[in-house]
Automatic annotation (TrEMBL):
Keywords linked to the UniProt accession: Membrane, Transmembrane, Transmembrane helix
Positions of transmembrane segments: 73-93, 105-138, 150-171, 183-200, 230-255, 267-285, 291-308
Signal peptide (from-to): none
Protein name: DUF2029 domain-containing protein
Keyword Membrane part of the UniProt annotation: yes
Domain of life: Bacteria
């Protein structure tokens, strides 16, 4: 599902279609000059894409054929694999929360048929890796499993520094892991993020960011009011609704009465509200509302699964009435 839709965008978009893509392609090429500070330290996904590209041309180069690195295609493969991993974790989380197999699969369809899935796999972006790590966090909280939680805390910040917005959920509602372990994993993740920044500066002493990080942070905060206004404008609401399209109707179906909400709402993990709050902070600080809303990937998949699972027709499908 991912490889087909993402490939169409990969081979049919202009090089300047997404400004962020140019930054990450440069990082994959080892070029750090004139890259915005907000992008230059997100090196994990570009490094994985570079490794995949080097592997693809290794044999032709050994045979004496000089070929350029297929970085666009390697980003496509890495991003597709990351989003597929996020989908698998979301499915397992839905099953652990009590959804049957068919509703859980439909929950996956709700997030994988989104146009944002094609956008994130077909372009050289890093959001798919971030979605994979927050899906790991969601899986950990849904299954109450310690090691996925600690792994998410350790790797989240280095994939994208805004993972810190998700730390309250992990620290407050990850009680199935000892607090000292959660604190150690979170501290290690932040230290790793800082170490990558120091290493990048050390290895690229002549390179400079187009805009310093502090300036970018101030600009994001200053633009937050305008971003909120844009979100509640007609165009903003249409952009938000288009992320999951008609699947929004399934979620609305789950809110049609208090009794219906009680049939599936309590099954969600305790920290769901903090997860959604972290996504809201991304929406406020970013000018790309649709891409940020897609961070609800695991929550939306589980919500659709649980809402469908609570419907009488699903119960009849799996437990047909017996004929006396």
């Amino acid at each position: 599902m991912l490889t087909s839709t993402g490939y169409v965008l990969l081979v049919n978009h202009d090089a300047h279609f997404a400004p962020d893509e140019l930054s990450y392609l440069q990082l994959a090429q080892g070029e750090f000059t004139n890259i915005p500070a907000i992008h230059r330290y997100r090196v994990v996904m570009p490094c994985l894409a570079r490794l995949a590209a080097e592997a693809a041309v290794a044999l032709p180069r050994l045979l004496g054929s000089a070929r350029p690195l297929p970085l666009g295609a390697s980003f496509y493969l890495v991003n597709s694999a990351a989003l597929a991993g996020a989908a698998t974790l979301s499915y397992l989380a839905s099953r652990a929360l009590g959804a049957r197999p068919l509703p859980s699969v439909l929950g996956l369809a709700a997030v994988l048929t989104s146009g944002m899935a094609s956008y994130l796999t077909g372009l050289a972006l890093v959001d798919s890796g971030f979605i994979a790590i927050i899906s790991l966090l969601w899986f950990a909280c849904s299954t109450r499993t310690r090691w996925p939680l600690l792994l998410a805390l350790a790797l989240g910040p280095v994939l994208k520094e805004t993972f810190v917005f998700f730390l309250p959920m992990a620290l407050l509602y990850g009680r199935f892991a000892p607090f000292w372990q959660r604190l150690a994993a979170a501290s290690g993740g932040l230290a790793l993020c800082w170490a990558v920044r120091v290493l990048v500066e050390y290895l690229t002493p002549g390179a400079s960011a187009t805009v310093p990080l502090a300036t970018l942070a101030v600009e994001h905060l200053a633009a937050s009011q305008a971003n909120v206004s844009a979100l509640f404008s007609g165009a903003g609401l249409v952009a938000l609704a288009s992320v999951f399209g008609l699947w929004n109707g399934v979620v609305l179906l789950g809110f049609r009465s208090r009794a219906v909400v009680q049939s599936w709402g309590p099954l969600l993990p305790s920290g769901t509200g903090l997860f959604l709050l972290a996504v809201c902070l991304h929406l406020i600080l970013s000018g790309d509302a649709a891409r940020m809303l897609y961070l609800t990937f695991p929550v939306f998949a589980s919500t659709v699964s649980l809402v469908l699972n609570s419907q009488p027709w699903v119960a009849r499908l799996f437990n047909p009435p017996t004929v006396a």
